[in-house]
Amino acid sequence: MGITVKRRGGFGGGPPRFNPEAVAREIKKFAPGAIIERVGRGVDINGQPFAPYSRRYRNFLKRGGEDQKIDLRLSGGLMNSVKARDAILRPDSVEVTIAPDTGTSPVWRPVTTGSEIRRGNAARGRGLFGVVGGYSGPLRRGDEKRLAQRLAKTGTMQRTGKQSPPHNVVGYWLHYGTPTMRARPWMGLDPKQRAYLFQMIARVMWR
Amino acid sequence: MSGADAAGPVADSAIEDLRAVRDALQRDLLRIMLQLDTNPGEDSLVRRQGQTAVAVYRQVDQRLLALGDDVARIAGTRAVEAVASVLGAPPASLPLDVRQELDQIVNGQIGDVVAVFRAANDEIRQAVARGITTGGSLADLVSEVAARMDTSFKRAQFAVDAAVMAVGRRAVVSVALDAEDGGERMVFVYVGPRDQKNRPFCRQWVGKAATDPRTLDNGQGLPVENYCGGYNCRHSWAPTPIPLAIENGYRIFDTSGGRDDVDVTNSFRAATLEAQNIVEG
Fold it and tell me: How does pLDDT run along chain B (281 residues), one tens digit per residue?
């Protein structure tokens, strides 16, 4: 493909002008989406794939009918809370805070066949349909319908009624890891994204 | 605490307030109904039916109406705080039209919550009617009402959660949609899980990018840029520069005309290549 050489007022067209507002705007426009998009691809801030989920958590997701992709997302509350939260503009520098908020998300649990049979009361002391569970007896009125209703929910997630720790705390745990959870550094830009952001900033400085 | 940090606690606090109002109502209803159950000389539910049905209806309705006002008042106060906290400092961090849109979203939250309690009103009225016409005991009726209110409260919590997430999405999307700044043009990648629970809209869009999500229709009557596929949607819009979106393999669709099937990836790719081959002289 041929290369066109043009002279225009872009890079090299004159001395750069630092416009704090324009630079902050470019950062706010780029960084939150870049983080959300990269985490959605399962890539950390070093450009490497995230550490795999534990077998226990994979089973948890599977039982709840969830995608097992490593995207640090269950309800989406954490990722949807990531945004530009603050900006400090100085004549010669800009500081933009991109972070999750301090809100919380509901805690979910998978609905499983076993738990639903128990909750459906079919197995309590009488066994499932009178034959399973070591007891025998007739199916009581309404059991069949109740059991069918409960089983229909199997493979989904339901709220436990509890709330998660604040999003910024969960984000910190995910980023740095805990004694029982591997670190998955996600808050920040990977080298390619950082380079692209510098280009964006350079464009507004030379505009 | 800076205003920016307060969005979460504000939402949590609103939920706590809703819970307190719900509990107060539940206690009142229990008191009213148990009183009816134990009034001397009224040992027959059948006998009581005619005398108390109207009173029960009226009291339940009055309490629910009052509750609806309380919810609207609480959510209204919280809405103002939530908007202030989302906008944070400095005040110029978001343009005026974005603030107005955030206002609308949070005001929509009030509508959601009030609608939920309006639904609860109907459910409780039905429960009372059913209890009276079938001649069941008032204790059963109370437990059914309590169960129904709990369900409705959860729905209120869903509405609040969804509205808070919508504010977050909108804050990100609005800044990127600001076309007048003359900066980088962005497309919006639809990010999130791909599984059997996806709504049709999410199944269609996950892993793709749209030029303007505002023109899309999720079939739920909710703004796509705020709610994605609907209430409690697990997905997000990620504003991404066109070259990066192409490099990461997303198909880009021009949705500016209200259509969702115009694939412009190749034309964007050609334009990107051309721009990369212009050497500034």
Answer: 333 333 445 455 555 655 565 555 555 555 555 544 444 444 444 334 434 444 554 555 555 555 555 554 554 454 445 444 443 333 344 455 555 555 565 555 555 555 655 565 566 556 555 554 554 444 555 556 556 555 555 665 666 677 677 778 888 888 888 755 667 889 999 999 998 889 999 999 999 999 999 899 988 888 898 889 988 899 999 999 999 999 999 999 998 877 778 888 888 888 877 766 654 44
For residue B90, say if its preceding peptide bond is cis, omega within 30 degrees of 0: yes
Average pLDDT over residues A168-187: 93
Rounded to a whole number of angstroms, the distance from the CA of A92 to the nearest CA of chain B is 17
**What is the amino acid identity at position B38?**
T
CB spacing of A101 vs B7 below 8 angstroms: yes
| B70 and A CB contact within 8 Å | no
Q: Say how far apart CA B185 and CA B195 lie, in whole Å.
A: 31
Instruction: Provide ipTM, 2 decimals.
Output: 0.81
Burial of B127 (0-12, 13-18, 19+ CB in 10 A): buried
Q: Do the Cβ atoms of A84 and B175 come within 8 Å?
A: yes
Please check whether residue A22 lies inside any domain of the structure: yes
Count of the separate structural domains present in chain A: 1
Let me know if residue A136 belongs to a domain.
no
> Closest partner residue to B241 among A30, A39, A204, by Cβ?
A30
Asked if residue A89 is part of any domain, the answer here is: yes
Q: Measured between CB atoms, does B134 come within 8 Å of chain A?
A: no
Q: Please answer whether residues A24 and A89 qualify as being in contact, where contact means their C-beta atoms are separated by less than 8 angstroms.
A: yes
Residue in the structure block whose two tokens are 């990369």: B276
| Residues B65, B121: Cα–Cα separation, whole Å | 8
Contact of B180 with chain A, judged by CB distance below 8 Å, is answered with no
CB atoms inside a 10 Å sphere around CB B102 = 23
* Residues counted in chain B: 281
Q: Which of B95, B82, B107 is nearest to B3 (CA)?
A: B82
Residue A110 pairs in a beta bridge with A157
Cβ neighbour number for residue A57 with a 10 Å cutoff? 14
Find chain B residues with C-beta within 8 A of A36's C-beta: 172, 191, 236, 238
Whether residue A189 is contained in a domain is answered as yes
DSSP 8-state symbol, A189: -
Tell me whether strands B236-241 and B186-191 are parallel, antiparallel or unpaired: antiparallel
Query: Residue B242's closest CA among B234, B233, B252, B232?
Result: B252
Q: Which of A3, A86, A200 sits opposite B2 (nearest CB)?
A: A86
Contact A71 B192 (CB under 8 A): yes
State the residue range of the domain holding A79: 2-51+68-108+175-204
At A83, is the secondary structure helix, strand, or coil? strand
